[in-house]
Amino acid sequence: MHTIDFGLYYFSKKPGTNINKLVSIMKETHWNMKPNKAKAIMLAKRQLAELVCDAVNLEGINFTLPEIQTLLDGITVGGHRLTDQQIVLNQADTWRTLFELIEKNQFEITLKQACALHLIAAKTEALKWGKFRSGGVTIAGTDYMPPQAKLLPELFEKMVDEASRISDIYDRAIHLFLIMARSQFFYDVNKRMGRFIMNGLLLSCGYPAINLPAKRQLEFNQLMLTFYETGDQKQMNTFLRSCLNEKVIKIMKE
Q1: Residue 189 lies in a domain
Q2: How would you label 134-166 residue by residue, b for 16+ Cβ within 10 Å and e otherwise?
Q3: Which of 38, 75, 227, 47 is nearest to 139 (CA)?
Q4: Counted domains in the chain
Q5: Which residues pair with 168 in a beta bridge?
Q6: Own/partner pairs for 43-49, CB < 8 Å, 24+ apart?
Q7: In a domain, 116, yes or no
Q8: Residue 148 domain-assigned?
Q9: What is the pLDDT along the chain (254 residues), one digit of tens a residue?
Q10: In this structure, is residue 15 part of a structural domain?
Q11: Is the N or C terminus of the chain more exposed, i.e. has fewer CB atoms within 10 Å?
């Protein structure tokens, strides 16, 4: 199994090995930000309600930011289905778990940890949560068919292997998101899981998370449909980079 242990980047090809080979230190080559893990996590924590709000609105679950803030404070919001409120809380709980893993230097990209995060993020929402899908799925709006379920463990390892060969931290993180979305490792919550893994990598390496604003949903959906068909990451890479808040970049460069 390929294992990624972030902060520095280690790569191990053999299951059970205790000796990880240091391959590279993550670098950001576009904005010239210097890594600062504490600052990156602080900024993401302050943005938690916004991250959750945009994520659920992108899924067609309409909450305002004040409503999300109220829910995260432990107060039920009227006028919304309990199932939708649970999805909101699941997203927040997954972020909090991610923060804890990163702060304890325990975040890694493995099948086991991806499933553990999915167990929280997709609880009661997906057909099965906490495990890879065991059957076929389709993606609305495209003729592209995700890979067969029996291939998924091997494809996850291949994704991690390919990521290890990408030098820029944002290119590497975006690659992980896009492959997770296109592979559809789970029955549901694949794009959100891809973003958790993408941002887990970024924060672990000391770089700010990418939040996808709900107001850019149409552009996102159109570009993702093209990506599903072609597998070409260029347009989505440019789009996701454009979602990184300029104010956050400025703070990171202080």
Answers
A1: yes
A2: eeebebeeeeeebeebeebeebbeebbeebbee
A3: 227
A4: 1
A5: 27
A6: 43/208, 43/209, 43/248, 43/251, 43/252, 44/95, 44/99, 44/199, 44/203, 44/208, 44/209, 45/99, 47/209, 47/211, 48/72, 48/92, 48/95
A7: yes
A8: yes
A9: 444 333 333 333 333 322 222 234 568 888 999 999 999 999 999 999 999 999 999 999 999 999 999 999 999 998 999 999 999 999 999 999 999 999 999 999 999 999 999 999 999 998 999 999 999 999 999 999 999 999 999 999 999 999 999 999 999 999 999 999 999 999 999 999 999 999 999 999 999 999 999 999 999 999 999 999 999 999 999 999 999 999 999 999 99
A10: no
A11: C
Token pair, residue 98, equals: 């991610």
Residue range of the domain that includes 61: 27-252
Q: Radius of gyration over alpha carbons of the chain, in Å?
A: 17
